[in-house]
Amino acid sequence: AQKVTQAQTEISVVEKEDVTLDCVYETRDTTYYLFWYKQPPSGELVFLIRRNSFDEQNEISGRYSWNFQKSTSSFNFTITASQVVDSAVYFCALSEGSNAGNMLTFGGGTRLMVKP
Amino acid sequence: DTGVSQNPRHKITKRGQNVTFRCDPISEHNRLYWYRQTLGQGPEFLTYFQNEAQLEKSRLLSDRFSAERPKGSFSTLEIQRTEQGDSAMYLCASSFPPLADPSTDTQYFGPGTRLTVL
Lengths: 116, 118
Prior knowledge:
Largest sheet of chain B: 7 strands, mixed
Helix content of chain B: under 10%
Oligomer: heterodimer
Number of helices of chain B: 0
Largest interface: A-B, 26 and 29 residues
Helix content of chain A: under 10%
Structural class of chain B: mainly beta
Strand content of chain B: over 45%
Order of helices and strands of chain B: EEEEEEEEEEE
Order of helices and strands of chain A: EEEEEEEEEEEE
Shape of chain A: globular
Shape of chain B: elongated
Largest sheet of chain A: 6 strands, mixed
Radius of gyration of chain B: 14 Å
Strand content of chain A: over 45%
Number of strands of chain A: 12
Number of strands of chain B: 11
Distance between the termini of chain B: 37 Å
């Protein structure tokens, strides 16, 4: 069965520090999708990124970057020059199969606190 | 374009009562999902619909839970004879998988309904 593990339950950094959130997944499927969502204090999950299992290219979007490594079953998320507004709970998620819209299996989340 | 909306945002009920939540997906999204999130945990899948058809149900969805999407638009989730263990945030999401490329499908979440069972 699929599983997502986010070993870091809470991380605290000072503004402008770089921070990496770890995500390790388990699946028997060869086709799958990985996601990151942000959950600010308001509670609504905000979609950040989707990657499919055939695309291991790293991606950068502004201060955010993602490192996907199939060899270690990891999909890590780095925030460069963190800001107070980045404070939130971040979830990594997995969906199996050829349709990216299949049910999501979430990790337990990492609470990021960015202090001014 | 409005996002996914859920009502009510908060519900407090006594054990044994029935409750019903409503989810309105993003317009024209044909897939609708329900998840449950307990404090300090990640969301857990409950069920999903494609149009009005309920295609998958988690084993978490006990007999006391029922979800409907009668016209393929909004959905309701009912919990009968609530128990204290039902206290959680109930999240709804919707998506529109492009026929040409379902690999680009993405679930967009609503603000959730927080249920407290006393």
